[in-house]
Amino acid sequence: MSRVLAGRYELLEQIGEGGMAVVYKARCKVLNRHVAIKILKPEYTKDLKLVESFKKESQAAASLVHPNIVGVYDVGREGNINYIVMELVEGKILSDIIKEEGPLDYKRTIDIGQQIAAGLSCAHKNHIIHKDVKPHNVLVTKDGVAKITDFGIAKFVDNATIVGNADTVMGSVHYFSPEQARGGYVDEKSDIYSLGIVLYEMITGKVPFDGDNPVTVALMHINNDIVPPSKLVSGVPPILEQIIMKATDKIQVNRFKSADEMMEALKNVDLISSIVGDGIYLHSTAAENGVVEVPVNLAENKDIISAEGDIVSMGKNKNGKKKIRLNKVKVTAIVIALICAIPVSGLIYHVITTLGESSEIKVPDLKGQTVEQAEKNLSDLGLVLEEGDKVYDSEYEEGEIVSQSPTADTVVKKGKVVTVSISKGSKEGTIPNIVGKSYDDAVYLIKKYGYEVGNVTVGESDMPKDTVISQTPDAGEESKPGVSISFVVSQGEGEGKVTMPKLTGMTLDKAKEELKNIGLEAGDIGEDMSDAFSKGQVMWQQVGAGESVEKGSKINLKVSTGTEPTAPKSIALDIDFTDAKNLVFFLTVTVSDEAGTRNIFTREQRLKEQGSEVVSLTGTGVGTVTVLFDNEVAIKKNVNFNTGEIN
């Protein structure tokens, strides 16, 4: 007999499970409709703080009514069972769609992105921040409607989640913002950053940052630049790429001001592509030459076509129909004019013609410079500086540039405006950031902001010697002046030492190549069964990933045979009788391997004049073979049954 909750919800079947809850399909007997019910696992019901948070935050989420948000209908408790009743969505999880079909085409990416942004907009207007936007929390119906789930519900803790000081979940490490990674102030722009990462994964099929553990990935969000999507896949609209890069800017104030603003930007990409067509984004020969074809009805708009022949050229395609050829830079300006219903005047035409002919310029890195310095550097390159927001920052001193848009190394045209955010200095009572600074600079900053130098220790790092590699308390934390700041400085990487890479999960050939690239060698290769690693994958390495090891060292490895035991293998051993002391002697051959020690021959009589004998050795993995003449060791060698080598 099925279980009924609260006298109305009949549990039918389990449809999902997370770290802290199980999801069931159920039928509401009162309204006669199917629903999804999330039930907190029994082991967490004793945590009163968690249960209360589960209840309160779910009630807040229930206030959100939007087509792009999974509705929360009810929250309750029956005995030891804490549950949430939600809308049942028939469809797929976005993470599964990306896994099965990724990379997704840009139109589908834009469509889903707009819907997620619309759902976030509703939440933000109701003062609710999701904090864990990721493909796993987006359901897509069979009709293509995207719905965000898990608003305000206690986040599931697993090996891809970072947890804060008070056991509060900060978000999933591959998708959360730099401020979440630092444990800093989180607002609506943190959700915008996460949505930018989701767009990135949809359009490229992979997340921008990945590593061996959550801490590594978190540091990448803080320190590493995101590789533009167009570097990984072709056909990414430049405007969409700009949206993704802006949404994932490491500085909060440089991102979109709201989910609505981001949604409108995505709609504009959709609108432009619907007017011009895919040709403007695809790597056709014409597109590579800066030319795209557009529909005739667009070209026939006399308010848009200039009398100048280099903007528009008329011709016929293979079917004899008229076609229009437009320069890519200029066609973008024309489309914008279409959208705004503004005729292209001689002045506008002059501007877009100038843009088309301008040389490309790489934007310099302005961070740490004063406005005067940056203005001069940009002016020399033909670029224009514009002052943006003034923000508190513990890394840059007052008056220095904290961030810029476009970012450093972006290729732009002459005359491009570069907007910069300027530091107001560290907010009083905020720990300064000294990671990456020299020892002397770190001491200077600590004292400048009214703090004391605490314990200074030395640690291994690939950072330059005497550079700060970590600090306690962390940068950005609020703390009264006079508090001691301890830090660790790098002793530099040891001479002749290298850092061991992670080899587990690789094929044996790939692992050997990785070792060779950093000056190491593969040692003994063993085999064993494994449920975690597929057949042929490295399942164990002698030196753990991240540890230092002397160059030239041999690293023993073990390779998975899958779930089946390793089949014994045979190797031929040629035994030379020349060293036998007696004409008639007794021969003993002993083999030790992963299966144990055993005798092949035990005191069998041989004649020295026979000269030699070939013995077949059978075993698994690696071991040794010992040959005795009259109980004295004549031969002792290492044997590797995996490779067939004896040495």
Descriptive report:
By secondary structure, the protein is an alpha+beta fold. The protein contains 15 helices and 34 strands. A 6-stranded antiparallel β-sheet has the order 1-2-3-4-6-5, covered by helices on one side. Strands 30-29-32-33-34 form a 5-stranded antiparallel β-sheet, with no helix packed on it. Helix 3 packs antiparallel against helix 8, helix 5 runs antiparallel to helix 7 and helix 7 runs antiparallel to helix 8.
Describe the sheet with the most strands: 6 strands, antiparallel
Which sequence of strands runs across the widest sheet?
A: 1-2-3-4-6-5
Number of helices: 15
On the 0 to 100 scale, the average pLDDT is: 79
Write a concise keyword list for the protein shown above:
647 residues; alpha+beta; six-stranded antiparallel beta sheet; five-stranded antiparallel beta sheet; 34 strands; 26% helix
Q: How do the strands and helices of this protein lay out in sequence?
A:
Layout (H helix, E strand, L loop, with lengths): L3 E2 L3 E9 L3 E8 L4 E8 L7 H14 L10 E7 L2 E7 L3 E3 H8 L4 H20 L12 E4 L4 E3 L12 E3 L5 E4 L5 H5 L5 H17 L9 H10 L14 H10 L11 H18 L8 H4 L2 E4 L1 H4 L12 E5 L5 E6 H13 L5 H12 L2 E3 L8 H11 L2 E8 L9 E5 L5 E3 L3 E7 L15 H10 L3 E8 L8 E5 L11 E7 L6 E3 L8 H10 L3 E8 L9 E4 L6 E3 L3 E7 L8 E8 L7 E10 L2 E12 L4 E8 L2 E8 L2 E9 L4 E2 L1
Parallel strand pairs: 16-19, 20-22, 24-27
Antiparallel strand pairs: 1-2, 2-3, 3-4, 4-6, 5-6, 7-8, 8-9, 10-11, 12-14, 13-14, 15-18, 17-19, 21-22, 23-26, 25-27, 28-31, 29-30, 29-32, 32-33, 33-34
